[in-house]
Automatic annotation (TrEMBL):
Bilayer-spanning residue ranges: 12-32, 44-67, 88-111, 117-139
Source domain of life: Eukaryota
Signal sequence bounds: none
Protein name per UniProt: Solute carrier family 35 member B1
GO cellular component: endoplasmic reticulum membrane; Golgi membrane
Membrane topology according to the record: Multi-pass membrane protein
Compartments where found: Endoplasmic reticulum membrane
Molecular function via GO: UDP-galactose transmembrane transporter activity; UDP-glucose transmembrane transporter activity
């Protein structure tokens, strides 16, 4: 959202910031481990390589969203174009990495020993392609921010569902985080939409 405003030239109402903040805080409270909090209280090192990699991942994800915003606004890029080009670049990068590291030969040897893995990889690829199709469709039609909210809350519901199905208990902090997430989602669905008048003004300015 922040990089979308800075680089993607997007604008949001103050309500939108509040609702997204509620969702982010709720997810963080739900998944944050008590061991981390205990380490912080005793003066232990909390930020490590994992946190740095996560921060880099979030930054790259934000840059991707900002670039997508510009592409959609300026070039009217469609979901199929983004999906095709992203996968073409991914194939190129991965092909180079496989050759440089020699992992391609390891894979060929593994596939020869266990040929049934090829059918599983085909099914996985089809499911992945279908998932990507809907993700890019949402990005092109609604923008990167709603797509990010959906994917983030999907992960939250996955964890929450596993907790409910397997009978794991939630701590008071996790219940508060759950309330934050549902509150943010509900408020965003009801009050977070961009007013029609604002949309018309933005459309008129582009024309």
């Amino acid at each position: 959202m922040v990089l979308g405003v800075i680089l993607g030239r997007k604008s949001y109402t103050w309500k939108k910031y509040v609702f997204i903040f509620l969702i982010v805080v709720g997810v963080a409270m739900f998944i944050y481990k008590d061991s981390k909090a205990a380490a912080a209280s005793t003066g232990g090192v909390v930020i490590g390589l994992g946190e740095v990699l996560l921060l880099l991942s979030l930054t790259m994800d934000g840059l991707t969203g900002a670039v997508q915003e510009r592409m959609i606004a300026e070039s009217k890029t469609k979901s199929g174009h983004m999906m095709l080009n992203m996968n073409l670049f991914s194939i190129g990068y991965l092909a180079i990495a496989l050759l440089v590291t020699g992992e391609i030969f390891t894979f060929v040897s593994f596939a020869q020993r266990y040929p049934e893995v090829l059918a599983k990889m085909l099914i996985f690829s089809i499911c992945s392609a279908l998932g990507q199709f809907f993700i890019f469709l949402m990005v092109s039609d609604f923008g990167p921010l709603p797509c990010s909210v959906v994917t983030t809350t999907r992960k939250f519901f996955t964890v929450l569902g596993s907790v409910i199905l397997f009978g794991n208990t939630l701590s008071p902090r996790q219940w508060v985080g759950t309330a934050f997430v549902f509150s943010g989602l509900t408020l965003d669905a009801v009050y977070g939409k961009t007013p029609k008048k604002v949309l018309e003004e933005v459309k008129a300015s582009k024309e």
